[in-house]
Amino acid sequence: MTDASRGRRPLLVAGLLAGLLVASAALVPLIADARPAREIPIENVDQSLADPGADGWSEVPAATVPLASAPSGVPNADDTTVRAVEVEAAQSDETLFVRLRWADSSTDRETNSPRAFPDMAAIQFPVNATTQPAIAMGSQRNLVNVWQWAGTGTTQELLAGGPGSTTAFEQPQVSVEATRATIGEDDGWSVVFTRELNASVDNRTQLAADADLNVAFGIWNGENSERAGQKAVSEWYYFPFGPDEGGAPFQMILWAVAGIAIALVIAVTAISVRRAGQEGESE
Q1: Would residue 146 count as lying in a domain?
Q2: H or E stretch covering 126
Q3: Residue 123: exposed, middle, or buried by beta-carbon count in 10 A (0-12, 13-18, 19+)?
Q4: Whole-angstrom Cα Rg for the chain
């Protein structure tokens, strides 16, 4: 290996590293403007999507929301089985539609014995859209609304100010349609919650707001005897009801940065291996 070759090697490596720095710097403004990873997009539609099987749902982007056992003092609270729920949201001029889809091989609808529990799903919003209450059913100072569906066919709209404090609205304005569906390669549920955007009642979340709205999700698997505080829940996500500030999805930008870094590392490694081979041949 000549002295000139040895001199070019560090220069080439330095050039590749400089390229990584330039590419990363170019992505900094994008990262600053990126939409946070917990956004669930809302699609504008001109038709009703209250039916879980409506054709229009194929045009609505989905977000996969991870779930974990809710922090609770009830027996077997950490024994839950649903690990994720697929969430899609759409709105017409007057109505919000939210579809939840998750894998569940059993269909649990009946409660005709002490050991029978229905499958259930819930969506939680802060009453005050500008706040982010405690994830576990809010608090006395920061109330939450809960939309709850059960496999028995029951739908409830609830007000809560902490665990065990739920009160049902006398005139619920949430309707639900549910059906069994294929989720990936598994059987599961497809459930659509529907509510008018404007619902002027005290302690009911206003959906037609000019700010992003926090939202969380919960799923119960009746076959696993899940009920009450024994449930799988998400962290807070949000619906972007506020002005669209643009920007690429946060995850997409992170993958782009990672891709550039991996490509440069591979290039540096390949050069090092080739140079090592040339050195061995010249000895």
Answers
A1: yes
A2: strand 120-126
A3: buried
A4: 25
Residues 16-71 have pLDDT tens digits of: 555 555 544 554 454 444 456 799 999 999 999 999 999 999 999 999 999 999 98
Type of residue numbered 57? W
Shared domain for 7 and 106, answered yes or no, is no
Give the residue numbers spanning the domain of 9. 3-34+249-282
Tokens for 50? 């209250």
Does 71 lie in the same domain as 17? no
Rounded alpha-carbon distances, angstroms, from residue 126 to 140, 210, 238, 272: 12, 15, 11, 56
* Count of the separate structural domains present in the chain: 2
In terms of phi and psi (left: phi > 0; alpha: psi -120 to 50; beta: otherwise), the region of 122 is beta
Report the CATH number at residue 81: 2.60.40.1190
Buried b (16+ CB within 10 A) or exposed e, 30-62: eeeebbeeebbbbeebeeebebbebeebeebee
Is position 88 within any domain?
yes
How much is the pTM?
0.74
